[in-house]
Fold these 4 entries.
Entry 1:
Amino acid sequence: MRVYVVFSSHSESTTRIARSIASSVMWSNEYEARQAAEVNPGEIHGPGVIFLGYPSGGPELDRAIRSFLDRLPERTMYNVLWAVFDTRREPEPAVAGSAVRRLRRAIEHRGGRLLVHPESFYVGLNEGVVPHRELERARAWGASAIASAVRAFRDTSVQSGFLSGGSSRPEWAAAVVAVPS
C-alpha cells in the first residue's frame, strides 16, 4: 500500500500541515508533501491512500486540485482511498467556505471513496504560524487514516508513494515497513 500527500496552497501554514500529515510515514525519514500543480497523476499507483487538501475560503474548488483530479487516471481513482483536509484561520468551519466539503463532493463525483472523515486544521491568523497542537493532530490524523487503510486493504506493508514533481531525485523513499495488525 502506498501513501501520497498532495495539497494546493501558497501558504506556509498549509504546507506545514501537509508535511505533518506526511510525517506519519516517517520511518524512512524522507517524507514529502507535494503541491498538486507539481504532481504527475500518472505516477500514483494503488492500492493506496491519497491525502488531499487546500485552504478553506472562496466559492469554488481550488484550480490546481481540480486539474489534479481531472488528470488522474480513472483506474487510479478506484484503486485508492481518499483522506481530505483543509486549513482555516478560524477555529469554527464557515459554511460557505468549506474546502473539505468541496473536496469530498469532487472525489465522490469522480467515483472515489473517502477512507476517513474529512478534517479541518486551524492554522492561526498570522501566515506561517501553526499551533504545535494542530501539527501533532495532523500527524495523528494521518497515522490513524493509514491504520484504517491497512485494515481496508488487508495490506500490512506501507510505503511512501513516489511523486517526482520537478525533482530529479525521488522525494519519497521506497522503504517498506510492516505495520502490526
Entry 2:
Amino acid sequence: MLQAPVRITLSHAELLLAQFQETAKFRGWSLLAVAIMSNHVHWVVGLDDADHGSKALQSFKSYGSRALNQHFGIPECGTWWTSKGSARALPNDQAIMDANEYVLKQDFPLLIWKAIVID
C-alpha cells in the first residue's frame, strides 16, 4: 500500500446510502440491505436477469465516488474504492435471506439499512 487507507465516516456513510438508493431506483434494482463500515461496504441487490452483479458493483462505486468527491473532495490516494469487490449472484431465496442476515449483523457498522418489504 503506497498511501494511507481511506476511512469512511458517518457523514460519508449517510451520503453514500442516499446515493445507493438513488442509483438502485434509477437502474430499476431492488436495494434490499446495506451495511457501511469504515473500510468497506456490503450490498444485497435484486437485479433483473439481464443485469449482472459486476455492473451493479461498478455503478454503486461510480455514483458513490461522484457524490463523495462533490461533497468531500477527492481522497489523497485518488479513489474511494479498491479495484475489486464481490458481485456474486445468490442462487435462491434462502441465499438472499442469508445474505440479508449477514449484512444486517455486521460488527461495528457506521450505518445499516434494510428495505421495508410489504407482503
Entry 3:
Amino acid sequence: MKELTLDQAIQAAIELNKNVSEKGLAVGFSELEKAVQDFESEGYPIQTIIPQGEDASLGFSLKRADGKKFWEIYSDLIRKSLCNSGGELHKLIGSGISTSVGAVLTAIVSGLGIPVVALGVMIPIAVIIINTGLDAFCAMADKKN
C-alpha cells in the first residue's frame, strides 16, 4: 500500500463507497482486511491506528482478525469517540454523512488522531460507517451493553 495524500484517500473512499453501495458491505470488509494486511506488510505496527487514549494491547487481537472481525474489534474502540452525542466528533461525522464520505474520512482521521500513513486503513472504515449510518453504528453499542 503506497502512502496516500488526503485527496487521494478521499477519491479512493468515493470509489469504494460507490462499490459498497452497489454490492454491499461485504466489499467494505474485504477491502478493510486487504488494507490492514498491506499496512502491516509495509512495516507499520497495527497499534498505530488505535485511537489515542485507547488500549494499545488490543493490537494483537486486531492482527489476527479477518475484515469483519477486525471491524467488530476496531468499531468498539472508536465507538466511544464517535457516539458521544454531545461531542465534536459525533457532530462532525453526523454532518459529514449528509455531505460526503470524504468528510467522514477526514473527521475520523483528524478526530481520532490517526496518522496519515494509515489513511488506506481508514478508507474502508469511513465507508462502512457511512453505509451503516451513525445512528445505527451507535445503536450497535447499546445492544452490546
Entry 4:
Amino acid sequence: MSFRTSVVFENDGISTVHTGSTARGETIVQDRANGVGMSSGELLLLALGSCTAGYLKEYLNSKEIDIGALRVEVSCDFDEAARRYVDFDVLVLCEKELTDRLRSAMYNTAKACRIHNTLKGGPEISLEIKDGWVAQG
C-alpha cells in the first residue's frame, strides 16, 4: 500500500517569511534572509533523526525494553561543487548499557526507517512551475 503526503510552503509576496504547513495543521516559519527558523538542511537532518528515534522507540516499546533516555544526533557535510548534502552520520546514544544482540536489533530497526530508505536510493524529484496562483488571506 502506498499513500501520498504533502506540505505547503508559501510566502505572502511582500516579506521574506515563508510558512510551511501540513494537512494536520502543524506549521513552521522560516525567514532565510533574516536567519529565522531552521534551515532547509537542518529540516532534512531533523527528519532523519525524528524517523530514526521514532522507529527505535516503537521497536523498544513493542518488545517492552527499557533503555532509559534516547538521543539521536544527525550531521552531514555540504558539497559545494555538487550543491548537495553528503555523508550523513546518525549517532544513537542510549542511557543504559546494551547487549550486543539488542544493539544489533536496534541498528537493523533504525536502518529500516522511511527517511533512511528514501535517501538511500535518491528519490526522483519532479519540479513544475506554474503562474496564475492567487494567495489566500
